[in-house]
Every structure is written in C-alpha cells, then in structure tokens.
C-alpha cells in the first residue's frame, strides 16, 4: 500500500513533457506579440516627440521677429525654450526648417525611430 501512495504524489515523465510543451507553445505565440507592442510604443513616443518639435517650431516662428522672411533652419538651441520633453527623452533634431508659410520640414529621431515632420510618418526604424 505504501508504494501506491508514493507513486500518486509524483508526476510522470509524460505529464511533465505535456506541461513543458504547452508552455513552449504559449511562449512561441506570445513573444512576437510582446516584441511588436514595444515597437509600436517606441513609434508612438517618437511621433509624440515629433509633434512637440513641430509645436515648438511654430511657437518659435510666432515669437521670432524674422517671421515670414524666408525659410529658416532651426537648431535644438533655438527650440529648447519651447520644448517640454519628458525626462529621459533622447531626441535628435535633423535639419528642422520652417518655410515662410509656416510649414515645418525635417526629421526627429527618438530611440532609433525617425519621424518625418512634414507628414508625421515614421521614416525608418533601425533595430
């Protein structure tokens, strides 16, 4: 009787293999989705930062005495007083220009995601 009681307490090898294969199948299905969600979050953060840069460029143009005198190239130092970025945001401005009509051109890069300022589209995502 004691042998049978001991056997019922342990899992068989087949039971363990079934559980491990179910866990492996779930991992194969869920990991790509989790990676995709983090990529979408990076793109959304980059687009928000790009919108903040466009707003800062528009505010700078409104405050500037040279508004309407031709295309103007802006630097990060020009826009710094107008930018309210979250802590830890690593934003790189690539040739931001404002046309006389107020159109903002250029690119903004945040965490390896580049956003085109003219159409707010993700230009490229380097992994």
TrEMBL record:
Source organism, top-level taxon: Bacteria
Keyword Chloroplast: no
InterPro entries membership: Bac_GSPG_pilin (IPR000983), N_methyl_site (IPR012902), Pilin-like (IPR045584)
TM region(s), chain numbering: 12-31
Membrane topology: Single-pass membrane protein
Cell compartments where the protein resides: Membrane
Keywords: Membrane, Methylation, Transmembrane, Transmembrane helix
SUPFAM superfamilies hit by this protein: Pili subunits
Primary site of residence: membrane
PANTHER family found in the cross-reference section: GENERAL SECRETION PATHWAY PROTEIN G, TYPE II SECRETION SYSTEM CORE PROTEIN G
The name this protein goes by in its record: Type II secretion system protein
Lineage: Bacteria, Bacillati, Bacillota, Clostridia, Eubacteriales
